[in-house]
Amino acid sequence: MITRFLLQGMDRNLRLFVLLVLAIGIALPLLNQIMPPSSPFYVPAWLLQLIGKYLSFALLALAVDLVWGFCGILSLGHGAFFALGGYCMGMYLMRQIGSRGVYGNPLLPDFMVFLNYKELPWFWYGFDNFGFAMLMAILVPSLLAFALGWFAFRSRVTGVYLSIITQAMTFALMLAFFRNDMGLGGNNGMTDFKEILGFSVQADSTRAVLCFASAFTLALGLVVSAAIVGSRFGKALTAVRDAESRMRFLGYRVEGYKLFVFVFSAAMAGVAGALYVPQVGIINPSEFSPANSIEAVLWVAVGGRGTLIGPVIGAFIVNFGKTWLTGALPEFWLFALGALFIVVTLLLPKGVVGLWGQIKARSQAKKARAPA
Amino acid sequence: MSPKRILAVLLSVLASAALAGAALAADLAGLIANLTAGGFGERETAITALAASGEQRAAPILEALASGQLYVRKSDNLVLIGKPDGNQLSLTEAISGKTAGSGTEAELDRVRVNNRLRGVIEAAVGSLTLMSPDARVRRGAAEALFKRRDAASLAALDVALAAEKDPRIKRAMSEARAASVLASDAPTAQKLEAIALVRERADRDSLGVLDATANSATDPEVKAAAAAGANATRQTLAAWEAAQNVWYGISLGSVLLLAAIGLAITFGTMGVINMAHGEMVMLGAYTTFVVQEIIRTSAPHLFDASLLIALPLAFVVAGGIGILIERGIIRFLYGRPLDTLLATWGLSLVLQQAVRSIFGSSNREVGAPSWMSGAFQLGQLNITYGRLWIVVFSLIVFVTLILVLRKTPLGLYMRAVTQNRPMASAMGIRTPRVDALTFGLGSGIAGLAGVALSQIDNVSPNLGQGYIIDSFMVVVFGGVGNLFGTLIGALTLGVVNKFLEPYAGAVLGKILVLVFIILFIQRRPRGLFALKGRSVE
Fold first, then answer.
1. How far apart are alpha carbons A86 and B91 in whole angstroms?
2. Chain A residue closest in CA terms to B347
């Protein structure tokens, strides 16, 4: 029954797309592990890492799309949920270093020794357990989203006001995490990770597994999102996006719908962050910077908001462009990014995915006009 | 009096003056000679005698002695002051002050001092400067003695007090005397009197004197009086500190006001979030930089006027670019505020990178004209001219803007469009034109803010980013479409921020303010002064 519920929301395109994501997530790591490095089909570890990173970004983009594309809440603070999930993972990885840090303290991470901590702060307890850390990576962002959403949606803070509030939230968190007194690494953040679940984070096999895990989680996220969006609940969400007041007058509890999707989306962003950190090997407060959150919104806009495939494609396109341009023409990257924001909002309101539809509509309109 | 007698009197006065001068010079020479002869013991008596003579020219000689620059030339026993000049010493005659060529250490004998003598010299110079003809020097000496609170300077202070005419300096001297009395073993009654005098000063230095007395006094009465005085002083100081914080808060608030007011107009009138607003501020600051560069190279005498020249230019540059943005991008996005937000964010990235490509990413130096540098004391408030002018400037901008909105046709149209766009349009107001002009006006004011900010912040491509979130907070807090709300919002946030800083630290204070605003918006989603009526939804 659950399977039926999950699958009913997916159309043929989405099913194919999920299979494609899974195929990439299985094929690339396998090619890395099975093929000898000399083979033309060999996938180097750096490419696995890169694809893994993009996949976690895609999951973040999907989370943003769920609230923005389907419910009309433009969150400029999803980077904060992403970073919080990342910090939970980072704390677990820090605890796994154990006594192999520079200072060799078996209990305290290096930065705490450096800052003269005598004992582990209370909020670090439990983070040596992987399961607990992952639970926190979901719970912490969810709770924050719940607190913010509960207040904001009940007071009917909407539109740009909500955007500004979420931006202020991530900005405040960034300032907070930059402080050394937070006990979370200050402006250096956390890095120099050694092991995850007993496997070295540097090893190719670990990278392969992480890449697969990211692809699998993304596929799962797509399936669950499709189920939500395709259900009666999802229809109501879209209706809230298009005519909030009318929904309210019809007797729907709009706050509840918004709150649920906001919290779910934050949890998804947290998971994305937790997948991101072991692959890049560092988490620091700049992940909270408002610019990051807005960039995530751009991925969705480029791919196509209000579709499930769009954000994934958008995340891949923009990040591929970023990787390539920051290497080849670093001066030019910000121009390109800025121009992309403008071009997409002005010319491609439905994103790349909607481009095909736009072209078709135009040609049909031409055809319709031609006989007359 | 006949002219002859006047002449005679004049002559005699001149003659006696000359005689007195000669006598003094002879005296000085004798005293100086004592200074250079004999051991440390004799030197000390000579220094005390010099101090007692009240001879002003002795001060630089004593200072030279303390710093080991007083020499006796071996060939003619002339006392000289030698300042290092390369390998040699450039010499001046100690008494007459005439230059005496140069010499090497080998030709000269240095007059030696030890630490004990240095202390004596310092006190001697202090009491000599107490008698200086220059009022400012006398006052400085009195202040220095107040801080030193040395019983040894009592005698010199008494002499100086008797001779002093200026009431303010007299006051400073009697305070210094009181401080010295407290350090001496004077009777209780005198000490209590001194405490009362010191207490009236009520500043940081007098607190130091009172605290020291409270700690060291043996007499319980004196101890209690000093402790009570110290407490009272602490309270006064705390009040001044609060006042200083309010001033800092107003100063920060005026900066926020400048940055936010343009935003308030565009957001209020058009419902448009302009994420590139901070970059308009930055463009204003860079305009100032360019103006100053041009002035530096081609017309240095205009430097003091550079900011005044930059103001209209910054307004035109930022306003012009604002109109271009409105015509080129924003007008296609009306009714889609979230898309506007994204597009203007993209624009802000482009503008930042463009400025970085042209001017480089490092900070640019923008100088302060002379009328903006320096500071003055108001009571115990330290007010810098730069900050004062920024507060004044932001108020001028605010008032001008209010007048524009209330008294000009454009202001009338703008208010009409803010309140009810369709109705305004139906009445024949060309709303697109009003939109473009409003956007230009808002951006132009951001440019003006940039000129002011160039004085207190680093002029770098990231200048605007630091203000954008704060300005939004001000606008949202104050309420949209109401300039007084923006004014009160800016000042409140500025003052609250500065009051939190000492307790919570700058960063945590800022976080608390942000959290406060987030909670505040939940309570009043439309800000402090919300527009009422049908336009709200």
1. 72
2. A338
Question: How many residue pairs bridge chain A and chain B with CB atoms within 8 Å of each other?
Answer: 119
In this structure, of A344-348, A359-363, B343-347, the range with the lowest mean pLDDT score is A359-363
Q: What is the mean pLDDT of residues A208-212?
A: 92
Give B-chain residues touching A346 at CB under 8 angstroms: 329, 332-333, 343
B137 touches chain A (CB under 8 A): no
Residues A272, A266: contact at Cβ < 8 Å? no
Amino acid occupying residue A153: F
pLDDT score of A278: 93
**What pLDDT, on the 0 to 100 scale, is given for residue B16?**
46
Q: How far is B506 from chain A (nearest CA, A)?
A: 10
CA A237 to chain centre: 21
Nearest to B345 among A155, A294, A349 (CB): A294
Number of neighbouring beta carbons within 10 Å of residue B258: 29
Q: Report residue B54 as tokens.
A: 């009240």
**Dihedral Cα A195, A201, A202, A205, nearest 10 deg:** 120
- What tokens does A140 get? 């912490």
Mean pLDDT along residues A304-325: 92
The secondary element (H helix, E strand) that includes residue B99 is: strand B99-103
Q: Min CA distance, B154 vs chain A (Å)?
A: 51
d(CA A22, CA A20): 5
Q: What is the pLDDT of residue B25?
A: 52
pLDDT confidence tier of residue A145, bands split at 50, 70 and 90 = very high
What's the confidence (pLDDT) of residue B537? 43
From the list A167, A175, A349, which residue is nearest B511 (CB)? A175
Say what the pLDDT of residue A108 is: 83
Least confident of A185-194, A360-369, B322-331: A360-369
CA distance B222 to chain A (A): 45
Range of the domain at A256: 2-369
Indicate the average pLDDT of chain A.
88
Q: What is the count of structural domains for chain A?
A: 1
Q: Among all residues of chain A, which has the CA nearest to that of B330?
A: A346
pLDDT at B14: 47
Low-confidence ranges of chain B (pLDDT < 70): 1-27, 52, 54, 480-481, 525-526, 528-537
User: Is A334 within 8 Å of B523 when comparing Cβ atoms?
Assistant: no
pLDDT digits (tens, 9 = 90+) for A67-110: 999 999 999 999 999 999 999 999 999 988 888 888 877 778 88
- How many Cβ atoms from other residues are within 10 Å of residue B331's Cβ? 15
Query: Could B348 and A298 be called an inter-chain contact, meaning their C-beta atoms sit closer than 8 Å?
Result: no
When CB atoms are compared, the residue of A157, A169, A334 closest to B522 is: A157
Of B337, B352, B508, the CB nearest to A160: B337
Contacts 24+ apart (CB under 8 A), B169-178: B169/B135, B169/B138, B169/B139, B169/B142, B172/B139, B172/B142, B172/B143, B172/B146, B173/B130, B173/B138, B173/B142, B175/B142, B175/B146, B175/B201, B175/B206, B176/B142, B176/B143, B176/B145, B176/B146
Could you give the domains of chain B? Answer: 27-118 (no CATH), 136-218 (no CATH), 241-536 (1.10.3470)
Q: Taking CB atoms and an 8 Å cutoff, what residues of chain A touch B329?
A: 342, 346
* A243 shares contact with chain B (CB less than 8 Å): no
pLDDT at B78: 79
Is some CB atom of chain B closer than 8 A to the CB atom of A292? no
Tell me which chain A residue has its CA closest to the CA of residue B335: A159
Q: Are strands B375-378 and A199-200 parallel, antiparallel or unpaired?
A: unpaired
- Residue B531, pLDDT score: 57
Tell me if chain A has a CB within 8 Å of the CB of B192.
Answer: no
